[in-house]
Amino acid sequence: MSTLLIRNVQLDGNVTNILIEGNRFANLTAPADTVADETYDASGLVLVPSFFNTHTHASMTLLRGYADDLPLFPWLNDHIWPFEGKMRAEDIYAGAKLATLEMIRSGTTWFCDMYWMAEETVRAVAESGIRATVGVTLMDHLGEAEIKRQLDFLANWKDPTNGRISLAVAPHAVYTVSGELLQRCAEAAKANGQTLTLHVSETEKEVQDCIEAHGMSPVRWLDHLGVLSDNVIAAHVVHIDEEEAEILKERGVWIAHNPCSNMKLSSGIFASDMLLKKGCRLTLGTDGTASNNNLDMREEMKFAALLAKVRYTSETLPAGEILRWATRNGAQAAGLDAGVIREGALADAVFLDLENERLVPNFNLTSNWVYSADTRAVRSVLCDGKFVMKDGMVEDAQETIARARQSVKAILSR
Ligand SMILES: [Zn+2]
After folding, report:
1. Which residue, among 256, 295, 296, 297, has the nearest Cα to 275 in the 3D structure?
2. pLDDT, tens digit (0-9, with 9 covering 90-100), for 247-296
3. Residue spans of beta strands (DSSP E) within 201-340
4. pLDDT of residue 73
5. How far is the CA of 283 from the centre of ligand 1 (A)?
6. Which of 49, 96, 3 lies closest to 386 in space, CA to CA?
7. Is pLDDT above 90 for 397?
């Protein structure tokens, strides 16, 4: 088992040495003379948990800034879907690779994805060194043969890494997936031991259309079908009432809040206070860059906290709470013993540079990290006990950027 000794690092206000054995934190107060395969001098750096992004569409990073300032349905129908129709396997890979680069640089070590050609995203994530639960998207319009092929792929897939990647069954939403297919997806997820992820009650229109089609709101409809359980990550969940919140809580559903996307597409304001008081399982996601327009979980925390204060009071969703959604809760939704720096936990973490002006003065690191910092404060990132960014350097960064530019050029010329 390989060992890594982190020397002179700040952790919870103390300077300490941390020993990592294999992919886990082994000793948070290791003697300075501990012998290890690799040593990293973290003087002037503080160690914090990395981010777990519970909802995104990694390959859509190629659509960053392609169409903005439109409502959800015209945005999808007239701009996003036509562009995506021209994307090929190599573009999905190039987009996912760009996304992993951005995530690493901003301190994210796991994401839950929903997109097409999952094997291309898997390839990008495997190379990047971070983790992901890669959603295999299912929609009625794929047709029965393709749906069967995707369900077979989900059932027979093997992780090419050492446990960093899993697949999720990802029925897109209630307005693109029939009740029957939703039930097949839920059965597949249970049988394969996989996460099921989908968009839920993102817009007012989605809710109205669902009531018209099925006589009930999306959350009630999904519960009626038996889809909701503790392996589900439901994205957005903006337009729900207290009874629906109760259902989600009872079923143990993980909710992915996407404040930037909800604001940008004018989808509505998340009921953070109501959901917190109900005791729902709450996490944070960026959604895709087409509606954000980045994958920066730190920025997302700030928007979430501020948006909650717009709707409720200045005391709603304090910094420590939203940080928990973005780290520990997200890791739990991922089924990972991570998101905290604790002996025995998976060694995923971020080194912040205390010399960065946005962290000065340092009355309260959590406050600085949520409200003040930007990604320049991220100096190094660990995932699964290994550096995925070391002193600002990410392997392949230049190739990744060049490949993404090339892909966009090729797509636009088709
Ligand atoms: Zn989404």
Report:
1. 256
2. 999 999 999 999 999 999 999 999 999 999 999 999 999 999 999 999 99
3. 232-236, 254-257, 281-284
4. 81
5. 14
6. 3
7. yes
Task: Work out whether strand 14-21 and strand 3-11 pair parallel, antiparallel, or are unpaired.
Answer: antiparallel
Whole-number Å distance, alpha carbon 177 to ligand 1 midpoint, is 15
- pLDDT tens column, 333-359: 999 999 999 999 999 999 999 999 999
Distance separating alpha carbons of residues 50 and 368, to the nearest angstrom:
15
The dihedral formed by the CA atoms of 361, 367, 371 and 375, expressed in degrees to the nearest 10: 70
Q: Within 13 Å of residue 60, how many CA atoms lie on the same side as its CB? A: 25
Q: Can you give the pTM of this predicted structure?
A: 0.98
| pLDDT for the residue 72 | 77
Q: Which helix (H) or strand (E) holds 138?
A: strand 131-138
Per-state percent for the chain, helix, strand, coil, to nearest 5? 45, 25, 35
From the CA of 56, how far away is ligand 1's center (Å)? 6
Phi, psi of 373, deg, nearest 5: -65, 170
User: Is residue 93 helix, strand or coil?
Assistant: helix
Distance between Cα 396 and ligand 1 center (Å):
27
Burial group, residue 70, by CB count within 10 angstroms (0-12, 13-18, 19+): middle
Q: Which residues pair with 167 in a beta bridge?
A: 134
- State which amino acid sits at residue 93: Y
